[in-house]
Amino acid sequence: MKVAIGFPSREMVHASFALDLATLMGNAVASGHEMGIFNCEGTLICDQRTTLAKKAVDSGADYVLWLDSDMRFPKDALTRLLAHGKDIVGANYVTRALPVSPTARNFTDGQWWKVPTYNHSTGLEEVTAAGMGLMLTSTKVFKKMPAPWFHIGYATANEMYTGEDVYFGIHAAKEGFKVFIDHDLSKEVRHTGSIEFMHDHFALFDKPKAP
Fold first, then answer.
1. Which tens digit of pLDDT belongs to each residue from 113-125?
2. Cis bond leading into 99, ω under 30°?
3. What are the angstrom distances between the C-alpha of 155 and each of 111, 113, 114?
4. What is the pTM of this model?
5. Which domains does the chain have, with CATH numbers?
């Protein structure tokens, strides 16, 4: 199988992401897959993803493994996603700000609903859309789906913007492609964020000594 890894970034990536990427590449090659890797620096995510998708298609890849540069993942993430035999399947990671929220969504009854991954959640689940920070997509999707593949939308009903991943999921479905999340893999994925540490945090864990 020929797989192109596509990761949008700014000018720097997390060291932990680089380590996970290296081990994933090694595992994929050892599993017999032909690998390519593409990076697109910038700040316009729709443009970056479009550029990476085009590079993957032009390289003759069968799949694109999307990896955001603030993600942590196990070395066998690619082989596990490929084993499902789906055109679009990814991990349901959480947002990187408190309170955290799952990135997978379902649209039913005219509303968007969060799709959580609980401790007891397992296997695949079909969803309307999911974050593309760790997602495998067949290049067949981009060959069939008309442009634009990615777009930042705006919902007048709740006056909120929707991400390019939501747009992708909705419009891929119009071409007959379903989106799935792997609950088991999702439990092993991390989303790297930042926090400003204060003395209040110390107070949370400090155990005063008995007088």
1. 999 999 999 999 9
2. yes
3. 11, 15, 17
4. 0.92
5. 2-194 (3.90.550.10)
